[in-house]
Amino acid sequence: MVWMCLTLLYGVLKGVREIVKKKALEKNSTIEVLFLYTLLAFLFVLPDAGHATGLAPKYYFYIGIKSFVIFLAWMFSFKAIKHMPISLYGVLDLSRVLFATLLGVIVLREQLGGWQLAGITFVSLGLLLLKYHPGMLFHKTAAKSGQVDVKIIVMAFSSCLFNAISGLLDKILMKDISSSQLQFWYLLFLTLLYLVFILVTRTPLHIKSLLKNHWIWILSILIVIADRALFLANGMDGSKVTVMTLLKQSGCVVTILAGRFLFHEKNTGHKLVCAVIIITGIVMGVL
Fold first, then answer.
1. d(CA 167, CA 204)
2. Are 33 and 216 a contacting pair, CB within 8 Å?
3. CA atoms of 71 and 64, how far apart (whole Å)
4. Which of 69-78, 177-186, 260-269 is predicted least confidently?
5. pLDDT of 171-190, one tens digit each?
6. Among 29, 158, 193, 244, which one has the highest count of C-beta atoms within 10 angstroms of its own C-beta?
């Protein structure tokens, strides 16, 4: 089905984006990368301005809420990615499956079949095995032991929750507006939110360094392509939030492999086993 293929494309590009985020954050701060990356993405969709107008006032309000939710999600995710192994983040990010499934069932009244329930069980099992692996225990003394600080883990899970809420809003909004309208306005609102944050906190921007950080430019192109694919999938008849959320998590394999071969991280074998269990759950959920 077309909407499944589009969602799968989003998932793979999402995994690539996590790698690019990690590289971009090596040269600039979180808020610097977020602001320029969002601004560039908005400039890329600026040609859609003529097709983005004419919405009822309530939709601007709803898109504004989505933008604020994404604002929080990205702030948390960028912080987490900067301070934890990319392969670990890729697996933790799979927890959004649980959040999105609950939202899909409670809000959209989507029904779960036997295969989907089995899939969620496998996803939960994979996350549990990851958490209780001796080498990956989360402790507040992480900075001294090489482990990950519990605050960073909380940020990663918070990002998953907010991303799940955003996915739910996408499904609701795409019933009445086009993908170009949603992408144009949410990127505009998001850019303004980051600008306000920078002004209020008086965060310095190193313009020359930012513009030379080619990873940010790549990141902007990837978000435009990935989001357009996802919005189109959301607008298609028969698409379900619960199934789409499972498909989105295919990107975890990309981040785990990148952690092993690009960033030379340790314990990737265990993470890959956990990811295989979770991907098995994803396949079950799509059946």
1. 32
2. yes
3. 10
4. 260-269
5. 889 989 999 999 999 999 99
6. 244
